[in-house]
Amino acid sequence: MPALSARGAKRAGDPRAPAGLPPTVLFAGYGLLCLTPVILAALQGLPARNVFRELSSGLVMVGYVMMLLQFLLSGRFRWLSGRVGIDRAMRFHQVTAWAILAFVLLHPLLYAAPRLAPDPTDALAALNRMFSSPNLRSGVIAWWLTILLVPLAVFRDRLPLRYELWRLSHGLFAVAIALSGTLHTLRVGTYSADGWLAAFWIAATIVALGAMAHIYAINPLLQLASPYRVTSNRKVADRMWEVAVEPERGHAMRFAPGQFVWLNLGHSTFSLTEHPFSFSSAPADRPRMAFTIKESGDFTSQIGSIAVGTRAYLDGPHGNFTLAGRRAEGAVFIAGGVGFAPIMSMLRQLKAERHAHPVRLIYGNRIDTQILYRD
Ligand SMILES: Cc1cc2nc3c(=O)[nH]c(=O)nc-3n(C[C@H](O)[C@H](O)[C@H](O)COP(=O)(O)OP(=O)(O)OC[C@H]3O[C@@H](n4cnc5c(N)ncnc54)[C@H](O)[C@@H]3O)c2cc1C
C-alpha cells in the first residue's frame, strides 16, 4: 500500500509540486549575490575612506542588490521559489524590505555622521548639500521612493486604495527605484567606476526589469493560449461558492492537491484583476477544476454573480503546501473556514486513489451555516 505522498500523486498524472531550486541553493545563492558587489569593491584595492563612508557604501550596495532581487522573489517564478513556496518567498520579500529600508535610510546619514561632532549643525548642512546637489538627484529620488514604498506596502490594508491599484503603484515605484538607483550608482558610486561592478549593476537591473516584463507582459501573452470557461458556480454554504472551470481547448493544467492559482475571471490577461485561490477539486477530477471561494471583499462579494460561460485564465500552479515527499502512512488535517479548500482537494485525491491509510479531519468554523462540505 503506498504511503500518503508522491507515489500516489504520480499515479494521478501529477504532481507539478515542488519543482524549483533546493532551499539551501536558493539561500546560498541569495547570500552570495548580496555580497558580490562588496567583494568586487574590495578587490579594487582602492584606499580606504573613513569607516562611516565605507559602512555606508557597503550597506547600501548589499541593500541595493536585495532591492533588485525583490523583483525575482515576487515574480511567481516556479523554477526559483517552487520548492520553498511562493507564499514563503513573498514573506521573505516583506521581511527583507525592512533591511533594505534601513540600509538605504542610513546611506546619506552615515556620510554625514563624522560631521556630528563638534557641531551637529555641520552634519545637517552636509545632508542639505547632498539632498540639493544636482549630481545626486537620481540617488535622492531613489532614496525618497524607497522610504515611501515600504510603508505603503506594510500599511496597504489601511490605505483607501483597491488592491489592484496598490499593486500597480507598487510595481511602478519599484521600477522607478531600480532605474534611478542604478543611474545614481553608476554616476557617483565610489566603486562603480570599475567595469566589473558597473557590469554587475547593469546586469542585475536588466534581470530585475526583465522579471517585471515577464509578469506583466510575457506571462499574460502565454496565458492567452490557454483560456478556460466557467462551467458551474454553485453555493456550497452561506457566503461560500464553488466555481468550476474547464479548458476551452487542450489539456487542463496539471497541479498537485494543495496548490493554488491566480484566477482571472472575465478580464483580459493583462488586467491586474486576478486573485489567489486554492484548488478544492482533485487532479483526478480534471479537466474540471474547482475553487471554493468565500465572499469577503470587493471581488469575492460578487463571486455568486459570475455566470457560467465566463472566460477564465489561470496563472499557476503555485505553492508547496502539498503531500508530495511525505512518507507518513496516515494524516491528520486541521482546517478552519475556507482554509478547508486545499485540504478538500487532498481528501478528494486520496479518495480517488482509494487510499486506505487512516485520514482524520479536524475542521473548525465560527459560523455554523458556513461549514463547508458537511455531506
Ligand atoms: C495562496 C492563497 C490561497 C487562497 N485560497 C483561497 C481559497 O481557496 N478560497 C478563498 O475564499 N480565499 C482564498 N484566498 C484569499 C483570497 O485570495 C482573498 O480573499 C481575495 O483575494 C480577496 O479579494 P477581494 O477583492 O474580495 O477582497 P479585498 O477586500 O479587496 O481584499 C481583502 C484582502 O485580500 C488580499 N487580496 C486581495 N486581492 C488579492 C490578490 N489579487 N492577491 C493577493 N491577495 C489579495 C489582500 O490582503 C486584501 O487586503 C487565498 C489567498 C492566498 C494568498
Describe the 3D structure.
The protein is an alpha+beta fold and 375 residues long. It folds into two domains: 44-222, no CATH class; 227-375, Elongation Factor Tu (Ef-tu), domain 3. The protein has helices at 6-11, 23-43, 51-73, 78-81, 86-112, 120-132, 137-154, 163-188, 195-223, 340-352, and strands at residues 228-237, 240-247, 260-265, 275-278, 289-294, 311-318, 331-336, 359-364. The strands form two sheets. The chain has a six-stranded antiparallel β-sheet with strand order 4-3-6-1-2-5, with no helix packed on it. α8 packs antiparallel against α9. The protein is elongated and about 75 Å long. The model is unreliable at 6-17 (pLDDT under 50).
Question: What would the keywords be for this entry?
Answer:
alpha+beta; 48% helix; Elongation Factor Tu (Ef-tu), domain 3; 10 helices; 375 residues; binds flavin-adenine dinucleotide
Quick overview:
With 375 residues, this protein is an alpha+beta fold. It has helices spanning 6-11, 23-43, 51-73, 78-81, 86-112, 120-132, 137-154, 163-188, 195-223, 340-352, and strands at 228-237, 240-247, 260-265, 275-278, 289-294, 311-318, 331-336, 359-364. The strands form two sheets. Strands 4-3-6-1-2-5 form a six-stranded antiparallel sheet, with no helix packed on it. A two-stranded parallel sheet has the order 7-8.
Write the layout of secondary structure elements.
Layout: H1 6-11, H2 23-43, H3 51-73, H4 78-81, H5 86-112, H6 120-132, H7 137-154, H8 163-188, H9 195-223, E1 228-237, E2 240-247, E3 260-265, E4 275-278, E5 289-294, E6 311-318, E7 331-336, H10 340-352, E8 359-364
Parallel strand pairs: 7-8
Antiparallel strand pairs: 1-2, 1-6, 2-5, 3-4, 3-6
